[in-house]
Amino acid sequence: MTTTGRFTLPSEENFADKTKELAALWGADAIRNSDGTHLDEDVLSLGKKIYSAYFPTRAHNEWITLHMDETPQVYLLTQRVLAETDTVTIDLMATFYEEQLTPNYDADPARYWEVIDRTTGEIVDPERWRVDTATHTVTVEGAEPMHEYTVSFLAYIIWDPVEMYNHLTNDWGDKEHEIPFDIYHPATRQFVMDTFGKWLADNPQVDVVRFTTFFYQFTLIFDQKHREKVVDWFGCSCTVSPRALDDFEERYGYRLRPEDFVDGGCYNSAWRVPRKEQRDWIDFLSGFVRENVKVMADMAHEAGKEAMMFLGDQWIGTEPYKDGFDELGLDAVVGSIGDGTTTRMIADIPGVKYTEGRFLPYFFPDTFYEGNDPSIEARDNWRKARRAILRSPIARMGYGGYLSLAAKFPKFVESVEHIADEFRDIHERTGGEAAEGELEVAILNSWGRMRSWMAYTVAHALPNKQTYSYYGILEALSGMRVNVRFISFDDVLEHGVDDDIDVIITGGPVDTAYSGGDVWAREPRLAATLRAWVRGGGALVGVGEPSSQWWQGRFFQLADVLGVDQERYQTLSIDKYFPPVTPEHFITADVPVDGTTAAAWRDAGYRIPLSGCGGGQGIAPLGGIDFGEPVANTFPVSEDVTLIRADNGEVQLAVNEYGKGRGVYVSGLPYSAANARLLERILFHASRNEDRYAAFSSSNPECEVARFAKSGWCCVVNNTDRPQSTDVTLDGGRVEHVDLDDSGIAWFRI
């Protein structure tokens, strides 16, 4: 039976009748336009709440073409060029897309650019290099033969990266390229505010201004073949200008170098251990961005409209998890739902009245084409998001793109009808309440709360070979029966560990923001504080290369807590002894870890997960836990360590008793049902809460249980596209056997 509400429907020109039909079928109470579309009067008159996408810094070429020195700018790093003589010429644009980027010759290159001898790291005196604007080259005199040289140069962004992507994806042909503009320049800032004021007056029918987004694009740079070259969803590279750099110097008392942005070619990825210069720029930028976001939010309110921010596109500088976001006056945040992790990234944002998820697939021709079945992606997307919604609800859902494309796929239309009804049913039963968490779990890294649910990410919801072993832990936690927070190494140094935290999870590859880099050598209090906390009864879970930094003859600085260290070819002359593997343990009690257990699982009617993470990497062997990319040469530091899983002389899973507490080492956990169950058992065992584990649990890891104490409901969900059976333990030890259809959900009173 169709219900109504909590659903935002995209529409477009000349599609009013079908819009009305689908709005009724999907229970939409709001309608929005997508990029490149407008709403007809017949759609506006349907009586629905009207969202309108608003782009503060694009779609006004009539202004910016007269002020091309006020487009956003980015520091770019050229390819490394080998000097074979004492003169070397470097092509600035050899690896960049000239329709997106063009060098800034307006600001003095000698002041704002930098040439570096990458063999020595020395900055080349500007008197030794010259710029040829006709050929877009820099020639260096007095170069050292057989040394490599680069140029870090300012470039104007002359095609909005998101509009460019949409343009190329949808083959918009001769459509005029939309040029972005930078409100850091007073004249352009005044134009933006005046234009928005006029737009508000001219659009009385709009109820919600959907800012898509504000002022600065995340780092999205294309190469000369139109391929993505630099993609960092948290990158602040596309935020610079000579004016801003000069103001930063005046305020902070030191000048930023081009190298502080290009970072040797790393472009300050969130994986890099954050440096003072990077943090200062984020603070400087967010202060400016937030000041002007509040101006626009206040203008929307004065016009009687809600102000909604899209967490994507030009979201850089808004920093929704940084203190003070609640002071901006935004009513809502909407974001793209890629999986459970990105759902939580939206749902957990503080300081707004409600949050909304834009589900996938996007109604674009790269998915909606003849022969494809978009309903498969829709249901998969819903299952991933549903786990997280049960733990941290979003208030609304919707889709984006061209409704005319989606309407051609009846199976997809039917799937969305089911998803929308189920979404509303969850809210109706729970009253928007989050499911109860059994444990308090903290994720510890350099960024802490500022990057809540953003750790281990490069691009939005797209793990890759180097990240999936870590990202899967967040994905597992996003729908797990635990409460999750994010803390930084600085938090621990300044305040210790909060009394209510049951388990801390930390780790990542060496020399990254997630393992901590040299903080372990610089700040010995960090290791000492965590040791004392675990020894007093805390639980520490280390992943990959946790606390890694070669220091004082040890690589994992918390090896004594975790019971595991890594050979870095410094102590090969010291023998290492592995204790026997413990074949049966609480952690692996209902998770297949060998062929026999897997067979028993199958005989019981349960499905063994085969895949690791999105994108096809990390395929788990049938019946086995997938530990992801191997962490080479790990070994137990003592024969007292409980070794649960090892492979080829490397530790994959181990437990270590440490005073009243416990340390657990795991090499990695890409997301799968079996891996999520393994992590859940790790958390309960590490915190010595094994006796609390059975209540509100499912015997089948493909199914999960959520308990809503206030509303008196409990549900079990099937996270697969196949029927599943499970036994569910409820209050008082009562056990219910449940048979679930594919993607099914069943409810119980508690």
From TrEMBL:
Biological process (GO), any one: carbohydrate metabolic process
Superkingdom as given in the UniProt entry: Bacteria
GO molecular function: 1,4-alpha-oligoglucan phosphorylase activity
Gene3D superfamilies to which the protein is assigned, alphabetical: 3.40.50.880, Glycosidases, Golgi alpha-mannosidase II, Immunoglobulins
Residue ranges annotated for the Lacto-N-biose phosphorylase-like N-terminal TIM barrel domain, each copy included: 5-434
Domain annotation Lacto-N-biose phosphorylase C-terminal: ranges: 696-748
Protein name, UniProt field: Lacto-N-biose phorylase
Species for this entry: Bifidobacterium samirii
